[in-house]
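Changelog-linked ticket: nicotinamide-adenine-dinucleotide example.
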Amino acid sequence: MNILITGGAGFIGSHLCREFLGRGDAVICVDNFITGSEDNIRALEDNSRFRLINHDISQPLFIDDNIDWVLHFASLASPVHYLHYPIKTLKSGLLGTHNCLGIAKAKGAKFFLASTSEVYGDPEVHPQTEEYHGNVSITGPRSCYDESKRAAESITYAYFRQHGLDVRVVRIFNTYGPNMHPNDGRVVSNFIVQALKNCDLTVYGDGSQTRSFCYVDDLVRGIMKMMDINYNMPVNLGNPAELYVMDLAKKIIALVGSSSEIKMFPLPEDDPKKRKPNISKAESLLGWHPKVDLKEGLNRTIEYFRRKLDL
Ligand code: NAD
Ligand code: UDP
């Protein structure tokens, strides 16, 4: 198949590019490298079935090739990044999604949207099911991301209903693993890099907020399965093993064998207090369940950063 993927030089996108090439597909990777990295795709660039287009997907893109799938993964994704670039974040979700849908429609391709658990905002329903409509602050600092993804879903379903476009939407919960940027700012990469450098771990708030962390290989397996079934409505993908951010910090210090200490910093505004996916839909539709537990996933990620940073 011919696959066009935006954000292909990013963390999740680069794993998907490798997976598609591995099964014989041709990949067009569209990325403007705002957070993506050449390192993530260097090993793919020798493959004749891989093509990189350096382009900002919030601008229209015209390509000659036949395309079977358009996967839209380009977005600022770390709170640190989207708080720094709120307008670019909105443009990737609003204009970028529109442009990708336009490509899919013109090419008769299927469309796949990387949505997020952030569409549920600071959730009042726990664990979060796909039916929950969310609790998002419209004007808060995170709204540039949350609302851009909610609007991305909305325009995706407008194309589905009005044009009959064949669409997939996954709502991804906190995912971690190799190819995350060391300065990405998200909690797993921050804590691992801090622990490897024996620096203080920066826990925001009192660390009593929860998250549920999915290892990237599990997520990629879920995404590939989602492409193989005929189901158009949103599906949560994430690992339901929930833990306190404080416990994550302690676990990472122990696994690294670090002498780091934990320091508390103010909790960012609107930081969700808890998050855990209900994955019944993914389990029944895809026969999917995460396989890599937190300890194993963290150990693999620690080894990645140890090598990358030479620590
Ligand atoms: P990432 O920052 O590593 O990757 C995003 C990629 O998109 C980068 O390569 C970046 O350069 C590129 N990009 C951003 N804006 C662009 C634009 N306008 N034009 C072209 N390229 C652009 O983040 P990630 O964690 O790999 O996230 C990938 C997708 O998955 C995002 O859409 C994100 O919202 C979604 N997601 C990720 C998580 C997670 O925990 N990792 C959770 C929920 C949703
Ligand atoms: N967090 C933290 N220290 C850090 C980075 C993040 O305590 O150095 C917290 C953050 O406040 C949030 C959780 O960890 O409660 C997850 O943050 P992340 O940025 O990874 O993603 P989010 O789930 O908030 O989108």
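Closing comment: Example verified and attached. Residues 15 and 115 are 17 Å apart (CA to CA). Residues 6-7, 9-13, 30-36, 56-58, 73-77, 92, 96, 114, 116, 172, 174-175 surround nicotinamide-adenine-dinucleotide (ligand 1) (CB under 6 Å).
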